[in-house]
Amino acid sequence: MNTLGFLAIPAEIVPDQEAVVTEGGRFTYAETLSRVRRLASALARLGVRPGTRVAVLHTNSHRYVEAYYAAAMLGAVFIPLNYRAKRPELEHMLRAGGVELVLVGARYLEHLDAVRGALPALRTVIGLDGPAGSLPAYEELVAEAAEHAGEAGVEDDDVTILMFTSGTTALPKGVMLTFGDFTAYVTANVELADGTPRGAALLCVPLYHIAGATNMMTTLWTGRRLVLMPQFEPRGWLDLVERERISHAFLVPTMLKQLLDQPDLERRDLSSLEILSYGGAAMPFPVIRRAIERFPKTVGFVNAFGQTETTSTLTLLGPEDHRLEGTAEEIERRTRRLTSIGRPLPDVEVRIADDDGHARGAGEVGEIWVRTPRVMKGYAGAGGSPLVADGWLPTRDMGWVDEDGYLYVAGRKDDMIIRGGENIAPAEVEAVLQSHPAVEEAAVVGVPDVEWGQRVAAFVVVRPGASLSPDALTDFCRERLASFKKPELVRFVTELPKNPMGKILRKDLRAELGAA
Amino acid sequence: MAMQLGKRYLCDTCGTEVLCNKPGGGGLTCCGHEMKLKEAKPLPSSD
Q1: How confident is the model over A446-504, as pLDDT tens digits?
Q2: CB-CB under 8 Å, B41 with A275
Q3: Cβ of A47 under 8 Å from any chain B Cβ?
Q4: A475 lies in which domain range?
Q5: Is A355 exposed, middle or buried (0-12, 13-18, 19+ CB in 10 A)?
Q6: Mapping DSSP to helix (H, G, I), strand (E, B) and coil, where does residue A448 land?
Q7: From B42, which residue of chain A is nearest by alpha-carbon distance?
Q8: ipTM summary value
Q9: How many structural domains are present in chain A?
Q10: How far is C-alpha A354 from the chain's CA centre?
């Protein structure tokens, strides 16, 4: 179906309920839909047709959400751009995406202007924050336009969002996600609004990230108030939870850690919070352990693991697995499971594949393959299907499944370390390092070695106030890991290099060791 | 059976699913049978 339905259908059911709340105001479903229809009308007048590439370069706002639904209404392809991208990356995304129209925030105008000359396809720029020179201003366009009546007829395999991956290993890749992908995800996993209370969701991850995009759809579809933060900031997040009585929120690990650093966390009223989910990057064990201790017991934590390529979530580790209660044995099992990404959603099958694609047994590391109706159409410009035999998608993530069906990530396929023919998963070594009480965070990479092919190197952040020697840490690992897995080089650092979602930039660590 | 707002209905025979965004008094049939109410599996995540 046309994803405009995620807004338009609940707007028929709960028209007067608040749909979107931002710094710029509060809007009901009916008001949001009316603004979307008027924006669509204005965009159509500016030449937007089915298939036209429409991009947004700004932080989260109600206008961003409206722009997506207006683009969907016209059957255009929406391209949410990473506003932290450097100029060569921005130019790459605009060119690879074939962008013809950009809605841009005032703070990114100069950034856009710097690359615009090299992009002849880019015909129109609209100012999201008001008039800027000769640019048409968003609010003026919306105010002057009549409501666009119909919606473009689309096929399920038409692309609705071209979303660029974070590019931790190479230039960002454009992932083509279709109307059918999002329809499958949203309708299979959340209930449509029916007028009963559904709470309020706080969205603080960028809308250019898959978790932000799906959240914008599921929240509105289910009749939950969508509260948008332009950008995450811990004090503002806590203020909004209190003021808006937030029931659902999604955080990346870095954000959760920043919240735990707030000295007044326990004095804040977080009683409305029901579900706090996290994902986007591997969660350091000490961070989730402390979060469980410090947030109210009424908060249900959820680890959501997914990829842009699979239209978000594949597996979940649910609230019950985060409750460290019961017998000593249960607590130990649950504590161990906190490093798991949980079990597949109902519309996802998982296979741990060996090099020939055959399924491996419990406990054996292999590449995580998934089969789900919402795999991307492909990478822009790559051609062909990303699927291998029988509809399986190799994720490039390595992992294993335990006896109870819980999935664990071992690291990116390209990050696996091979030392003297033995495979070493960085995540396994990192889990041991992070279980040391003096360790705040750790990342493990392979460094080239004449004798062994690769050796294990560890970058370690020591917890504030704690002290630790490399030898003590190596001894700690020797007692807990097969000897070939223990780090042979330990380097203490004040922080680990990360992208904005909190993913560790291993290529930077390898470069630091002269091993890029 | 009258339909319910916001619910999904499934045809066991051909697999068709129908969403109800405005119920009246009527019911739904497909492939000669009444369509069944399908229970959703809500995500516990922020989604």
Answers
A1: 988 888 888 999 999 999 999 999 999 999 999 998 888 999 999 999 999 988 778 89
A2: no
A3: no
A4: 416-516
A5: exposed
A6: strand
A7: A190
A8: 0.75
A9: 1
A10: 27
